[in-house]
Automatic annotation (TrEMBL):
Main location: membrane
Organism of origin: Mactra antiquata
Protein name from the UniProt record: Cytochrome c oxidase subunit 3
Membrane topology of this protein: Multi-pass membrane protein
Record-annotated membrane-spanning stretches: 12-33, 40-61, 81-104, 193-212, 232-254, 275-295
Family: Belongs to the cytochrome c oxidase subunit 3 family.
Subcellular location: Membrane
């Protein structure tokens, strides 16, 4: 790494254990859908889920140690990580594009049949968009504002106390008053970043609770026509992305508390989490206007 600037990753068991845990969870779901013995499904699924969580915790811990304490994430590595994250989000964009395509294909096909077709189909009562869905939209937009506040606070914090680690401080080029001001500003922005990140995580959890209540109170299911299938697939996958993003931001909040993003240190992990969260916000806006407003 020191000759090339790239990080040559050590041998790790986590990709293998992660693949096996996902395979186990998928097999358990398939067995559940095909009415396999529930005891086998629950035991095998629980073991696979535990292995997945354990793998995630250990793998992410290794990455944090490599980037924060071992200095393996050089500028070249971080640049490639940023490109990889952008490509990953782009793949997620097309993932949701396929669902939007299916939704509009079915709905426009029904509408084009004039008096025969109807959207939503007869017997399916769509959810009124200007109550719970509008509240969820406001919650996600608010979380996007708070996470942007955290991003800006971390960026400013990394610039404010730069003189603290400057060797010129000891030589007298910076007065004690300026030194104290830098430390005070850094602490202030650090507290702002932590508060706004906690607020974002809370809003994400609140969104998922309201989404669950909406599913519980819905008058139709995933088996009720193409509308029910596309509705629950699109909003369900979006909810799964909200859960992943909330966990991502929670980990970054813990890292903020332990000052992993301080003093011009690498904070690509925070950048990636914020990019991902903004992507989730944009997808929800599309879902709100397409599925809830136009679909109603």
């Amino acid at each position: 790494m020191f000759r090339t600037g790239y990080h040559l990753v050590d041998i790790s068991p986590w990709p293998f254990s992660g693949a096996m845990s996902v395979l186990g969870i998928t097999s358990s779901l398939v067995g559940y859908f095909h009415r396999a013995p529930l005891m086998w499904v629950y035991v095998f699924g629980s073991i696979s889920l535990f292995l997945l969580v354990f793998t995630m915790v250990r793998w992410w811990s290794d990455v944090v140690v490599e980037s924060t304490y071992l200095g393996c994430h050089t500028s070249l590595v971080v640049r490639n990580l940023r490109v990889g994250m952008v490509l990953f989000i782009l793949s997620e964009v097309f993932f949701f594009v396929s669902f939007f395509w299916a939704f509009f294909h079915v709905s426009i096909g029904e509408i084009s049949m004039r008096t025969i077709g109807q959207w939503p189909p007869l017997g399916v009562k769509a959810i009124y968009p200007w109550k719970v869905p509008a509240l969820n939209t406001a919650i996600l937009l608010g979380s996007g504002m708070s996470v942007t506040w955290a991003h800006k606070a971390v960026s400013v914090h990394n610039k404010c106390p730069a003189g603290v680690l400057n060797p010129n401080v000891s030589s007298g080029s910076i007065s004690p008053e300026e030194y104290n001001n830098l430390v005070e500003k850094g602490s202030c922005y650090q507290k702002q970043a932590i508060f706004s990140m906690v607020l974002t995580v809370a809003l994400g959890a609140f969104f998922m609770c309201i989404q669950y209540e909406e599913y519980y109170m819905a008058s139709f299911t995933i088996a009720d026509s193409a509308f029910g299938s596309t509705f629950f697939i699109m909003t369900g996958f979006h909810g799964m992305h909200v859960f992943v993003g909330t966990v991502f931001l929670f980990i970054c909040t813990l890292r903020l508390i332990y000052r992993h993003f301080s003093f011009n240190h690498h904070y690509f992990g925070l950048d990636a989490a914020i990019w991902y969260w903004h992507f989730v916000d944009v997808v929800w806006i599309g879902l709100f206007f397409a599925v809830y407003v136009w679909g109603y």
